[in-house]
Design brief:
Elements: E1 42-47, H1 51-66, E2 71-76, H2 79-87, E3 93-97, H3 101-110, E4 114-131, H4 132-137, E5 163-167, H5 176-182, E6 187-191, H6 195-207, E7 213-218, E8 228-231, E9 253-261, H7 262-267, H8 269-277, H9 282-293, H10 299-309, H11 311-318
Parallel strand pairs: 1-2, 1-3, 5-6, 5-7
Antiparallel strand pairs: 3-9, 4-7, 4-8, 4-9
Helix pairs in contact: 1-9, 1-10, 9-10
Length: about 325
């Protein structure tokens, strides 16, 4: 997403997922030995750290291997470095991008080393959320103008006497520090460190029925487990987030896009054609993501289960 960081993964996404710890390892230097391998029937997919993106890759990998006979390698790279790796041919495809205008201009429009692969079929949205149980008790909390009224209730040991606005990781694309400052809110952005850590904290707050304010995003399977209600920020208008320091508006709704290395797009054969046609719904993605993150199936097991139940959907990607 526009919002992501790598996880200290507990389950590999695919049998050849390359992982490092959550320290200072340079993810940009990871590359598959099969990436851009001329004449070989292999594909390398960039897998982002959030579970929805892992669901995309799991299903694509399963079908490439079991239906088209490809060897698939996956490489975990943060959002912006993934564009560099894709441009250089160290990975062949990114299946879920939440919008990176600078990289699109540099690599797609100017250098033409990356080709648009079409929409994923899922629309992403980032926002601020409170638990629905709290919103029902205090309906006015869902308007940003009333957030300061509840700052004391949102205070934590980490928020320095202010209300806590919980984010995932500093490496996510987030306007939250600017929003807090520009909207004059009595809140402190506190980073959980990763999607997994943020989910753990949200579930703990929900278990104790505590109020909280969090940066979160859809699609996301967690909404099925912890219902949350979005806080209305000032309406998004085209260009209102152009200057990161002056942002005072909501996040946009973003149709998620796929991108392919241009050489792979031209010469990748059935694999490239399949990835261009890969398109599913938010419900599809959440179904697989829920199996991985909550039911603790491996990505391959989740993909296999989904594939068995949705042949009418994926057959069209192979035609």
């Amino acid at each position: 997403m526009r919002i992501r960081t790598r996880l200290c993964a507990t389950a590999a996404v695919g049998s050849l997922l390359l992982l490092t710890g959550c320290g200072a390892a340079d993810m940009t230097k990871q590359a598959s030995p099969f990436a851009n391998a001329q004449g070989s029937k292999s594909v390398t997919l960039s897998v982002q750290s959030w579970v929805g993106a892992q669901a995309n890759v799991a299903v694509a990998q399963y079908l490439l291997e079991h239906e088209l006979g490809y060897r698939v390698d996956t490489v975990q790279v943060d959002e912006v470095p993934a564009w560099d790796a894709l441009s250089q041919g160290r990975v062949d495809a990114i299946l879920e991008d939440w919008g990176h205008p600078e990289q699109e201009k540099r690599y797609v429009d100017d250098k033409k080393t990356i080709t648009r692969g079409g929409q994923l079929g899922v629309t992403g949205h980032i926002g601020w959320y409170v638990p629905t149980y709290f919103a029902k008790q205090h309906p006015d909390v869902t308007n940003w103008k009333n957030l300061n009224k509840y700052a004391d209730l949102m205070r934590t040991a980490e928020s320095g006497g202010k209300g806590q606005l919980m984010d995932g990781s500093p490496s996510y694309v987030t306007n939250d520090k600017a929003l807090v400052a520009n909207l004059d809110l009595d809140y402190q952005v506190v980073f959980a460190g990763s999607e997994a850590a943020q989910i753990t904290q949200i579930r703990q707050f929900a278990k104790e029925k505590k109020p909280f304010l969090t940066y979160w995003y859809a699609p996301q399977w967690l909404f099925k487990k912890v219902p949350m209600t979005e806080v209305k920020l000032p309406a998004y208008k085209e260009g209102c987030d152009a200057d990161p320091a002056k942002v005072a508006c909501a996040y946009p709704h973003t149709p998620l896009e796929k991108y392919l290395n241009s050489d792979f797009a031209r010469s990748g054969g059935k694999a490239a054609a399949f990835l261009k046609k890969f398109r599913w719904t938010t419900e599809d993605q959440n179904e697989v993501a829920l199996m991985i993150a909550d039911q603790k199936l491996t990505p391959e097991q989740a993909a296999e289960k989904w594939v068995r139940g949705h042949e009418s959907t994926w057959r069209t990607w192979l035609s």
